[in-house]
Design brief:
Radius of gyration: 32 Å
Largest sheet: 2 strands, antiparallel
Number of helices: 5
Shape: rod-shaped
Strand order of the largest sheet: 1-2
Number of strands: 2
Helix content: 55-70%
Number of domains: 1
Oligomer: single chain
Structural class: mainly alpha
Order of helices and strands: EHHHHHE
Length: about 230
Amino acid sequence: MPYRRFPKTDSARIRALSTLLDYNSSHSVQGRFIDWKTVADVRTVYGKLVTAVQQRKADGAALQRFNASMGKLQHNATLYVSHFLQVLFMCVQRGEIRASQLQLYGLKPSKLAIPNIKTINGLISWGKKTEAGEKARIAKGGRPIYNPSIGMVATHCDIFCEACQKQKLLVARVERDLQELEKLREKADKVILSLWNQIESHFASLPPDKRFNECRKYGVIYYYRRGEEKE
């Protein structure tokens, strides 16, 4: 004896709802037996679920494309910050800039080493500190560092920071899409359960093989357990 298999995926839910709507609309009013409220719920949930799935796919694809471009932006910003700090350290070693002025950049005078800019937070933090430190040193009468200039460093850091903010918005949008889908899945499952109960109840008096075939026409899914033979 076959058992009902409720949809486990969004595509399966959509297919089950769509089958009912298509088959039910092909019958005359007199031939329809499913409660009108259930049909109305099916139409509502079906439309919302299709839209939500499409939105999730679109937002997910947009996030994936954006993530692919983030690597290059991070690489550029890291390269400019690292290069600038290396030039700064060389100026200190040559005596062109006093070691004590490294404190303006948030650096220790006794440690001429590139800080951790491999992480996103580290890069953003040290990018801001580097820009602020260079401006503070110039304001005190120091000569600007060129190749790269702090303007180029700031530009690439700003581009990366803006990209990070946009990425956060895209991630939040995808998360909202998933939350909305979870709610719709619960509604869809309740509607499908009510729907399939009505369908099976209507054909309950028919012989098993005919009953299952009629129910399948309305979207009910059956499966046989392992070891069982199909009728």
